[in-house]
Design goal:
Length: 330
Amino acid sequence: MESYNLVKRIFRLSYILVAFLDKARLDAVWASCSIKVGITLGKREFDFPFQVVNPIVILLNKVFDLSLTNANTTQSNVAAIDLVDKVNKVVFQVSSRNDLSKVRSSLEKIDTSIYSGFNFKYLAISKSAANLRDGKYNIPQEITFNPLNDIHDVDSLAAIIKNIPDIDKIEDIGKFLQKELVEKFFIRPNIVTEIINRLANQTSNNDLPQTPLPFDISEKIIHNGLDNWGIDIAELAIYTSKVSEIYATFASEGNSKSNAVLFSLRHDYLNLKDSYTGDELFDKLLEKVYEDADGDTCCNESITKEELKFNISIILVDAFMRCKIFERPN
């Protein structure tokens, strides 16, 4: 029975790690927090919102077995330090920035007369800090700082948690992350964004099969008054086979993502149809989808504005050819 219970706990632990320590998910959570809100602690502006300051402090305390508190609660405008544990002599700088100049500036500004003998740590809250660990720093003699061990991000925190030998402690951290971060701040991903990310690597016009249509596409273009978009629709139609491949992948995975996307596009179209017609209606629909995708933290950051608009246009043309948007001629 004891071995059976241990197996159950290990499975439960694995679920927690997968559900709550996934890098992409935590990146999305923290990035959305950083983007949406700002907070002023003391007299300085920070990149993370008030709602997650306390959860982050609690998380760091749980992970590192510390007793960190806000450094500005007792002394206003503490230079280069956000969190302090005076008992264990540890200080943290928490920032959305991941550039060498930020860490170097923080090290230069630490008041060594107050924090002599302290260990300095740096947390990049919404970006990878991997590039910072190989940097060269002028470290004051009065403090300790090892870039390899004292610079953290989502990746390093997840790695530390996964290597904690105490299963109960990991489970406690997992539940905490679920309650205080994921449930409060996680934004459900946009399926259109997923399609855009996949199209970004597939929009070569080599070996693209033409999809036969049950009607003459030119008739539908004329019927809906798409004088300007007509040429673009005809040119982009060849790429819709890639969208079909993505939808087929969704179907093979046993989900209804493609139906959800087409339903959403149809819904947006019908909402805009009462106010716009023809090319303007197509423009407004493109703007709506672009706005949703551009604001999605899951959208591939390497995609340019032009590529984003291009891939969304392909998705819309595919919906046009499937008669999910705009009226089919009689």
